[in-house]
Specification:
The protein is an all-beta fold and 309 residues long. Helix content is 0%, strand content 44%. It has no helices and 26 strands. The strands form 7 sheets. It has a 5-stranded mixed β-sheet with strand order 11-12-13-14-18, with no helix packed on it. Strands 3-4-5-6 form a 4-stranded antiparallel β-sheet, with no helix packed on it. Strand 21 and strand 22 form a beta hairpin. The radius of gyration is 19 Å and the shape is globular.
């Protein structure tokens, strides 16, 4: 949350003391991202500039990366001289699913428009490149391991060939393909099998691009869904996300009565989920990775979490 807390909820717990909720405070500023490395470890990232790894069994967090300024006391740290000051923060972090193990590799974007790949196995920053002059809200690597999708405040969805990235390139890079979305892009994520790219924009659209990773110059949506994404100043923005294993996706909704919406890869709405527990806007939603027992989790901007299964 905004105060740096991370919570784990054992939904089936019968405990009356904590109702299955385990609360930690690993960060001093808002937590911007969380991503599971495995069922036993979770990566969290924060505006405080740190990335931490939770060992679920031990209930302990370990700092695995941090950005630092250019002071000599930080010389030798992996994130040395990355922090550019007051207007610089970590915006998005995702685990690189190509690599398994206790030392994850990470993709990270910042408020300054940079994107980097952090290889904690080799204690190395594989690349740190300027992709935009404005904040990048999300990064997503295609399963082929070559094409990286980015989206942010420059109002553009871009596809990049990471094979062309140098370790610390400051030269102007050109995307393989792009789409001018008109307004800011909240997120752009490839589907599990890479067939589709899903974007959420402030143009009040959810858009699907089939085989976008094969395109050059310009990408055009194969399906555009009208969707009210104007969450306002006080609510977190919508970011439609795929099921980790299936070609379906979920998003919060501004519709009344309040609901969560699920869609298939063609953009057909599968279900509008309503109920007494959904009394407010669930800004952030996701699927549990199970394919046998389907479950959707929604969270609002007041710290309430709802599980639908």
């Amino acid at each position: 949350d905004k105060q740096g807390y991370v919570g784990l909820w054992d939904v089936d717990s019968t405990s009356e003391s904590n109702h299955g909720v385990h609360l930690f405070r690993p960060h001093s500023r808002p937590v911007c991202c969380m991503d599971w490395v495995s069922k036993d470890s979770l990566v969290t990232a924060s505006y405080d500039g740190t990335v931490r790894l939770l060992n679920v069994e031990k209930g302990k967090f370990q700092e695995i990366f941090a950005t630092y300024n250019g002071d000599s006391e930080y010389l030798g740290e992996l994130g040395y001289d990355l922090d550019e000051g007051y207007n610089y923060w970590t915006q998005f972090v995702a685990v690189d699913k190509r690599y398994q193990g206790s030392n994850p590799s990470l993709f990270m974007s910042t408020s300054a428009g940079t994107a980097m790949h952090i290889d904690l196995r080799a204690a190395d920053i594989s690349f740190n490149v300027d992709l935009s002059e404005k904040k990048i809200n999300s990064l997503s690597l295609h399963p082929d391991g070559n094409i990286l999708a980015s989206g942010g405040l420059d109002n553009t969805v871009n596809l990049w060939d990471i094979r062309k990235f140098g370790s610390n390139s400051k030269k102007a890079l050109k995307p393989v393909a792009s789409q001018f979305a008109g307004r800011s892009v909240n997120s752009a994520f490839f589907s599990p099998d890479g067939t589709s790219l899903l974007t959420t924009t402030m143009m009040d659209k959810l858009e699907i691009f089939e085989n976008a990773h094969l395109k050059t110059t310009t990408i055009k949506p194969t399906k555009s869904i009208r969707h009210n994404n104007q969450t306002g100043r006080w609510l977190a923005t919508f970011m439609a996300v795929w099921h980790p294993k299936l070609e379906i996706f979920v998003s919060g909704s501004m519709n009344k009565p309040r609901c969560i919406e699920s869609f298939d890869a063609k953009g057909n709405r599968l279900r509008e989920i309503t109920g007494e527990a959904l009394g407010s806007v669930m800004s952030r939603c996701c699927y549990h990775p199970s394919t046998e027992k389907m479950a959707i989790v929604g969270g609002n901007s007041s710290g309430r979490v709802v599980v639908i299964r």
